[in-house]
């Protein structure tokens, strides 16, 4: 799981959208100018999720009011911002009934009189036409007038239970979210989906997860109550069974639950899917800390505050409602301590370009995809030399001819949890900060490589630690490979051959897995002039691998969010192999872009060269792309691979698969296995199991 390649630039884009949409960062940095390398997309209008922040904030305030028992405030907010919700007497009746209970709960004479007045003027009139059972519920709740709140054996103990608040709050959130189109940012929904699949896969396969502690604290077991479909949808035409089954298995619903969800979404599968995902409850405080740690590590934001650390032992029920009731609890994420980290880069990633890899290539022996060695060895003394680190930072900045820009700063959910403002976060007053410099070095080296300045990055690393590349020879090989390709692109073939003789050849001689990559690199010399792209190489994966490896040597812990993403993406791939089908929600949640990782520079060059010209070079050499691998007898193995990986459901009709899934309430893979036993006959399968 830990070796799963991930397109971290795509995750950066999702994270940036998340922190911007949730208003977790300051709106702007004073006197900051856009980076020259910023892409045009940096000035694009805010996303849909960003524009819905105000609506989500209203929903959270309504939710907090209901969970705290302040029903009157919740109704007032609804009247001001979403009066159409109160037109539904089913919802209005439940709100007024809860208001009656909360008035009684206060226990004073005045509140008891107000509760009786609420019964007369609000609850009773709503009960007449809310829904058929409403009047019976009205008569039943009257018993609360004579049975005490603490009497657990009373017939209205459930009416007194505080869990009714959370059920009501969840229902209101579901209704408002869909009605106002106030869905959570894509990253939040993607994380819910990946973690839920991860948990299901681990349970199904009987394996333990390396990130189970985090995932259980992050994604809670509780879900918001589902929104009730409008009465006009009770007689809705039948939906496509393919959509029903896809929704049911994606978010773990019964078939009837999936049908009801489709009714509420008026037949829109993707809207229903988003509604169901947002019902899953995330611990927002844990999520924010994970995101903050990731942003600091990746150089996305600056931080004036130290991480909130310290043990916080809370049950899942308590942590699920911490947003409204437990603002002061600290979160124990075992996060590495950060001081005032001023992250270095020429372009602010919140305003700058995010470059995504566009190809997925197979992991070969000579690929960059091998994980960097863990920082278990003793660090060289040069890494801990503060003066040398500071000089190295100045040299790296001079390489890129830029000044260090201020980045966005963490703001937090100040509007939602006011008590967080009482927490004090110490700032660093020292002008020399070893922790800050460590982070800046790793981020600056990553930025250097991503700009194609591999030779400069290799020099700076060797200056700080002469033994680094002895322990990471594959990284040095790929850095020198970039230098070689740039020289060839510039027409300096002699310089390129010197790099190959001095570095690439000796490194490949010591590591046979690099020999094939070396041969393919040398073949680039045969490209016609002007057809060897030395610029715009897919260097992000190499840059990210270097950052992790350097971070290990500097004793910088990998963000826990990165571990979660790698583990859950791995199980997502394995899960749909078991299901023998593609994920219909891949593109919606940007999961496909997270998996698009190009670790092979040579295949990227060949791919681009084939698009730009009609040369036949690519057909004369062996490529590393898994889709065009050549077998030993000279024939293409792509057809063989397609045959081997063809899903078995192609043998049976889709209608037969769906029929078995529907009647037996089975996952797709189990339905296909049963059909395989009975030659694809759904009726025979059902008869055998029920006969």
UniProtKB/TrEMBL annotation:
<protein>
    <recommendedName>
        <fullName>CTLH domain-containing protein</fullName>
    </recommendedName>
</protein>
<feature type="compositionally biased region" description="Low complexity">
    <location>
        <begin position="32"/>
        <end position="50"/>
    </location>
</feature>
<dbReference type="InterPro" id="IPR024964">
    <property type="entry name" value="CTLH/CRA"/>
</dbReference>
<feature type="domain" description="CTLH">
    <location>
        <begin position="55"/>
        <end position="111"/>
    </location>
</feature>
<feature type="region of interest" description="Disordered">
    <location>
        <begin position="609"/>
        <end position="639"/>
    </location>
</feature>
<dbReference type="Pfam" id="PF10607">
    <property type="entry name" value="CTLH"/>
</dbReference>
<dbReference type="InterPro" id="IPR050618">
    <property type="entry name" value="Ubq-SigPath_Reg"/>
</dbReference>
<feature type="compositionally biased region" description="Low complexity">
    <location>
        <begin position="613"/>
        <end position="638"/>
    </location>
</feature>
<dbReference type="InterPro" id="IPR006595">
    <property type="entry name" value="CTLH_C"/>
</dbReference>
<feature type="domain" description="CTLH">
    <location>
        <begin position="438"/>
        <end position="495"/>
    </location>
</feature>
<feature type="region of interest" description="Disordered">
    <location>
        <begin position="27"/>
        <end position="50"/>
    </location>
</feature>
